[in-house]
Fold this sequence. Notes:
Low-confidence stretches: none
Helix content: 10-25%
Largest sheet: 7 strands, antiparallel
Shape: globular
Mean pLDDT: 94
Radius of gyration: 18 Å
Distance between the termini: 33 Å
Oligomer: single chain
Amino acid sequence: MVEQDVIILANENFTGQYHRLVLQADRIAPQAQPGQFVHLRIPLLREALLRRPFSIYQVKDQTLSVLYKTVGKGTHQLARLKPGQMMNAIGPLGHGFTVPASPQIRPLLVAGGYGMAALYLLAERAPRAGVVFVGGRKQGDILCEAEFRALGWEVRAATEDGSYGRRGLVTLPLREELERDASGVRLYACGPTPMLKAVSALAHEFNVEAELSMDEHMCCGVGVCLTCVIPVRTSEGWEYQRTCTEGPVFTANSIAWEVMA
């Protein structure tokens, strides 16, 4: 974990409400692993003491990028920042995804909205390409399709309003694929909690391993404030663990979903 001042190289509209921020982060970027995040202090924000966590999307040499959606004061202020401005970053943070050690493992990625960002490095570093299942409410929520295809991955989209891909939840085409062939599959998912819970249930039903990046609200990002805890199974039952330090990625069968309900 490194704290450093970073330079904004680009801050551009990606599509709709989504933006891509590119940072010169020579001490953080080379250490980044799939599924990890950075905690950014947004300049000129009155509530600047509270950093904002963002999944690391792409890494190239000494630069990294994140995708974000303008949904509140912090991200609206972030969207106003210009190339050349400085901001403070801590990272890479958290426990990320396990990159498959063998091409015998068939990776299936599952993303809701900009959960695609947290999965990109995994797709890039996996020893073989697989299938990405991406879902959203509408077509505008389907991100990074071209970027994943450029890596050789197949992308299957689903939208709740039917405006793009299959109509319905992303777990529907995922179920169909598991019914077709679940041999050698490992699931990796990032998105809203109901989607992650559904992916966990499918992993249990088809007896495949799954890693989930949990979408919990974070404040400090370094394990001090305990606002991001989730119940995780132990040999004696369950205990709360911090999403920012023990996670955000947990194995699906380690999460005590019945306690979260």
